[in-house]
Amino acid sequence: MESVYNIHPLDIKLKDIKTNYSYDFLKNEYNNVYYSIVNSYNLDDLFNLYRFLYLRSLKINHKVKSFRVLPLIKSDKKIDQENFNGILKNYIDNEDVYEIFIMNSIQCYF
Fold first, then answer.
1. DSSP label at 17?
2. 29: Cβ contacts below 8 Å, ≥ 6 apart
3. At a CB cut-off of 8 Å and minimum separation 6, what does 9 contact?
């Protein structure tokens, strides 16, 4: 059976954690690995990660019109952990394909 991961989560070498926000946008069994990755970013890096996720979702949408695009957040607006968590939770909306997209995109950015 094929894996849905770019890299298996247990093979990811984590960086130092800079924040300790309790994210809950993933339901995957390895969610703590992804939360640790996101917690290794400061707020500026978190905004850059979000822009990366947005641009990847936009690129997929150009090829597959039914694929939802993350909402655009302008560069003059700040994003914090709570906003980031809420936006991703609403975007994923308990749909596996969007959860896999977010997990693999976080890995690519990392």
1. -
2. none
3. 30, 33, 34, 103
pLDDT by residue (tens digit) across 33-87?
Answer: 889 889 988 888 899 899 999 999 999 999 999 999 999 887 777 788 999 999 9
Mean pLDDT for all residues in the chain = 84
Question: Where exactly are the structural domains of the chain?
Answer: 9-109
Which residue type occupies 56?
R
Q: Count the neighbouring beta carbons within 10 Å of the beta carbon of residue 88.
A: 22
pTM score, whole prediction: 0.81
What letter would DSSP give residue 2? -
Rounded distance between C-alpha atoms, residue 48 and residue 7, angstroms: 21
